[in-house]
Design goal:
Number of strands: 6
Shape: globular
Radius of gyration: 15 Å
CATH class: Alpha Beta
Structural class: alpha/beta
CATH architecture: 3-Layer(aba) Sandwich
Strand content: 15-25%
CATH topology: Rossmann fold
Largest sheet: 6 strands, parallel
Order of helices and strands: EHEHEHEHHEHE
Length: about 150
């Protein structure tokens, strides 16, 4: 049976790499649904041509998150702190966790950073750590992918 995996940020570098991996999985166990705010982008058209289901959704809307995640087995989620800021990242992260818990997602993979406030005291790191706490508290099996800082 195929497992439907939600990938947020599927049109970006990180999310796109996850999509590539899932589509190339040798046993073909996965279907991929990419979540995007702009379904008309060239990147979306390329994903669609490869068999990725695309759903337009703003994860800051709980209702749209529910619709986007329906029937999914797992979620690979990343949020763009520097694009949207602290409040929006917190809202999106909490919606992802709440919806995952409600609909019975079996596993969440959360793209985050290593550490919390520590020496850095970066609000972006704190934001990701708070969502980690939310995921842990949900009881849903999870994997945290600690991405080093990089700039594109």
């Amino acid at each position: 049976m195929l497992k439907l995996i939600i990938v947020t940020g599927a049109t970006g570098q990180q999310g796109g790499s996850v999509v590539d991996f899932l589509l190339k999985e040798p046993n073909g166990h996965f279907m991929v649904r990419g979540i995007t705010r702009n379904p008309d982008s060239p990147a979306v058209k390329a994903l669609t041509a490869r068999g990725v289901e695309i759903v337009k959704a703003d994860l800051s809307s709980l209702d749209k998150t529910v619709k986007a995640f329906c029937e999914a087995w797992g979620v690979y989620s990343l949020t763009a702190f520097y694009e949207h800021g602290y409040n929006t990242e917190q809202l999106c992260g909490k919606h992802i966790v709440k919806v995952a818990k409600t609909i019975g997602i079996k596993h969440i993979v959360w793209s985050t950073v290593e550490g919390r406030e520590g020496e850095c005291k970066a609000i972006s790191w704190t934001s990701k750590a708070l969502i980690e706490d939310c995921i842990i508290a949900s009881g849903i099996p999870y994997t945290f992918v600690h991405i080093p800082m990089y700039y594109c």
